[in-house]
Amino acid sequence: MAQASSALTAAEALQAVAALVPRLKARAAACEALRRVPNESIADLHAANLMRLMQPVSFGGAGLGIDVIFDLSIEMCRGCPSTTWVWMNLVTHSWNIGQFPIEAQHDVWDADPHALATTGLALPAGRARKVAGGYRVTGKWPFGSGVDAATWMLVGAMLDQENAAPGRRFFLVPQPDFKSLDNWRAYGLTGSGSHDVEVIDALIPEHRSIDAALFATGLATPGGLAHACLPYLMPPFPTFGFALGVVPLGAAKAAIEEYVSVTRKRAGTYTGTRLAGLTPLQIRIAEAYACVDLFEKTMRADMAELIQGVARGESPAVEARLRWKRNIAFGVGLATRAVDTLMAASGAGGLESDTPLARHFRDVHAAASHIALTWDVQGAAYGQHALGLPLAAGLLL
């Protein structure tokens, strides 16, 4: 049964995010202190209909694509990158649920049309065994960003199989079958609440599980075939790379905006000289802008290549998947270079830990530590493929 929708268009969603930016910015310090997104911000995001943007239309969502989430994330980072990281994760996992069997989607959204999921999807940190009626799943997954706002969790586990090597599967686990361990204490993205999440011997029915290789196709997922529209046909892992990479891009752009705004009005503490007139600072600002502009242009071009190929019914080649991941990780390095060059010229005032510039600096560096955004990992994978070598086991493409 189709649910009533209060879905936003892409333009309406951008207006809604822009309206929230001042509130998110005002709460950014509280977000860090709580180590999670404040309840008021989660409520604001729900009230603005921004949590259901990638939920399927047939379940009351907007059914929007990753290109829209990309634009919204850049704007939301002007307020709070930790909140953006959580929102991006929760919204995109509604898209992933939309690729599961339709029966699973009814389980999630029939009782609560606003239900959200966090994830331990990428890490096969659990074990599963086949039983009557489904699977028994146990494990502990790190980095459950936004778990405090979620009532479901997507997890990856290795399925024990007789006379065969374990197979990788994904499972959709409801509360109260998972528990946050409340252990996220990080120097950056501090407010993302990316706690470890534990599941102990949960019974998961067959329809709330999917084979990892099938899920990775996008085009052949049960939900993709049922909805038969572009967002749910997208391959999850290369697509999700753009959702992850846009947060350090947005945070770096916000840092530049903050630095330029302050520098236009600031005089040097020691000499009283107007800082905007100093050539070295002008050069640093140019360098920072160049870094984020190059990163953003590359990401947008690669994302368009992915979307256009899937719209033609094509599954991206391995080379393309690796190239996109390579470019995103390299671009995150440019984002860190942008904030580093500004922080080095921010003077003693830049040492204040609760300024927006310092927060963005920490958040960009924290995001860069994500395995999907780490240059050593993604660069090595591309280099292995270019040299004709086998790729590392377990790489999600």
Tell me about this structure.
- The chain is of the alpha+beta class and 397 residues long.
- Helix 9 packs antiparallel against helix 10 (279-311) and helix 10 runs antiparallel to helix 11 (318-343).
- The chain folds into 3 domains: 10-109, Acyl-CoA dehydrogenase/oxidase, N-terminal domain (Butyryl-Coa Dehydrogenase, subunit A, domain 1, Orthogonal Bundle), CATH 1.10.540.10; 117-211, Butyryl-CoA Dehydrogenase, subunit A, domain 2, CATH 2.40.110.10; 235-386, Up-down Bundle (Butyryl-CoA Dehydrogenase, subunit A, domain 3).
- It is built from 13 helices and 8 strands.
- Strands 1, 2, 3, 4, 5, 6, 7 and 8 form an 8-stranded mixed sheet that branches.
What is the element layout, followed by pairings?
Blueprint lengths: L9 H17 L1 H7 L4 H9 L18 H12 L3 H17 L4 H8 L7 E4 L5 E6 L2 E11 L7 E10 L2 E11 L3 E3 L14 E11 L3 E3 H6 L4 H6 L8 H30 L13 H33 L6 H26 L12 H12 L7 H12 L11
Parallel strand pairs: 1-4, 2-4
Antiparallel strand pairs: 2-3, 3-7, 4-5, 5-8, 6-7
Helix pairs in contact: 1-4, 4-5, 4-9, 5-9, 9-10, 9-11, 9-12, 10-11, 11-12, 11-13
